[in-house]
Target: Diaminopimelate decarboxylase
Amino acid sequence: MNNNTLLKIANDFGSPVYVYDSEKIVSQYKRLTSAFNKVKQLKVNYAVKALSNISILKLMKNLGAGLDTVSIQEVQLGLKAGFSAEQIIFTPNGVSLEEIEEASKLGVQINIDNLSILEQFGTKHPKVPVCIRINPHVMAGGNANISVGHIDSKFGISVHQIPHILRIVENTGMHINGIHMHTGSDILDIDVFLYASEILFDTAKHFKDLDFLDFGSGFKVPYSKGDIETNIEEFGTKLTKRFNEFCKEYGKELTLGFEPGKFLVSESGVFLAKVNAVKQTTSTVFAQIDSGFNHLIRPMLYGSQHVITNISNPKGRERFYSVVGYICETDTFANNRRINEITEGDILGFQNAGAYCYSMASNYNSRFRPAEVLWHKDKALLIRERETFEDIIKNQIEVTL
Model:
């Protein structure tokens, strides 16, 4: 997508607006599958929580992906998008036994990361195949909020509790058909991930009738030119070799699973917002946009750095701006960032807006959530309408006071 295309989309659909390039999603999917093309059975389950628009899910289905879901609502979205239950894995955290049973009734693959729930589910449903999510206690990932493999994480059953798992499996007679792990997001050190993988392999040896091993995801994508990213090609070569060796040791051809979200959709997305005002104080020049952390919370939540470009004036001289939103508390997207000269009415583009942007948006300050547009085969397709005031009040009930 070039600047003229983005400006036309902003003009046609209004701002702010999320725009996704389907071609980038396709190329990322092919890059991952190519890196593991020497694995006989590969399963890529797209992490729905990254971007859950049903049109994006349909695109993933057309590519041959399955789905990784974390709520019963995501399971229902996947089924509505046309996925079969067998193509969906349900990996929740901290949900009730009732929600897990509801997902199980729909026929999806259940993944459990809690000893108590494992025992309860296995006692009531011993014939239902279950995957177990372990915590390898290997720290990988960036910000603490997205590193889930550490010793005190709420995610997974500790690898040190395997004897408890085995006792539950023996007592209930339940069938364990998969082992899963996830160390965190923004993984840079491949060797750390491979070390965690060895823990997964060792765990798998305790279970004699597995169908798959799921290595989660968390691959680092670049957020700016020259930024470090996970070397998927090197990782694919190294893990493929070790995985194929393990399958021979195990005596069975297992499926190798991944659950990428950000890796597939992050770079496809651009968030477009209009500059409402340029405000100069004693020490700062603020570019105030028609959005806020109600639409893009990642910089505030994770400290993420999204490249911001002036789509309207890409060749203007660079000046320093602090880009801020219209929410009535601090919502700063960039501090003293070099951006091509900004004037009121310009359209700014926030890069890497495909993952965890719309999906984490809210109606804070009673603002509407923006539209979503898919750029597909040189056409701008509206895949979600901008909200209206009726959407804000439709579930509210006015009572007589």
Q: What stands out?
A: Residues 141-150 have pLDDT under 50 and may be disordered. The longest helix spans residues 232-250.
